[in-house]
Amino acid sequence: MSEPEAGASSKSPFPTTRWSRVAAALDPAEPGARAALEELCRSYWYPLYALIRRKGHTPDEAADLTQADFVRLLDTGLIARADRRKGRFRAFLRTDCGYFLAHQAEQGRAQKRGGGETPLSIDARDAEGRYLREPADPGLTPDRLFDRAWALRLLAGTLERLAREYAESGRSALFEALQVVLSEGPRSVPYATIAARLGTTEGAVPAAVQRLRRRYREVLRELVAATLEVPDDAAVDEELRELFAALGG
Known about the structure:
- The structure is a single chain.
- The chain is built from twelve helices and no strands.
- With 249 residues, it is mostly helical.
- The protein has one domain (19-246).
- Helix 2 runs antiparallel to helix 3 (59-75), helix 2 (33-54) crosses helix 7 (142-168) and helix 7 packs across helix 8 (172-178).
- The model is unreliable at 1-12 (pLDDT under 50).
């Protein structure tokens, strides 16, 4: 039950390069810029949708505004020109969306799906279903809800990448048996039960669990680092603290 290499090629649900490189790729003058935006949209649309909904917009309005916001980010080259000294793509998107909504309110209209452009496909019914499952806590402001949704997407993305890594090495069954330890704790399922499911010895399970948990931490930190301009350990630690605080833990 060997662990996959840390550098195994797996498609991340978040950009795999730091913000400066993402920004360069999103320059409208660069080939492939539209495809790069679509990748970003698929990763980040729901936190923005949730923020917009919590600000009082209807589901249809929120879907339209989310579309329009991402189109604007590409068509204006705003991401490429953004001041990245603050260093957090999460904070940039959240703050910039606030400016965008204020401008839309001043104009007295919501730009419909980016004026005909569709950089991502938002299933409004699915989006609203997710939104309705969010906590109804009145203290969960739009900004806090955005950060919470971002954190949950980050954790889900970490699991998705781990699942791909294990699948690529032919060990999907191992991951399926062990992943419960990531969400419910290392002893949530008796190791004897896991061993029986995998056809191995109980003594082999703790080492496999330890490897999975270690790789989980590595992938989580890699995905966080990908959204920071200066992804040193201190910056990653700080971002993780804020994201876990957004989850209430």
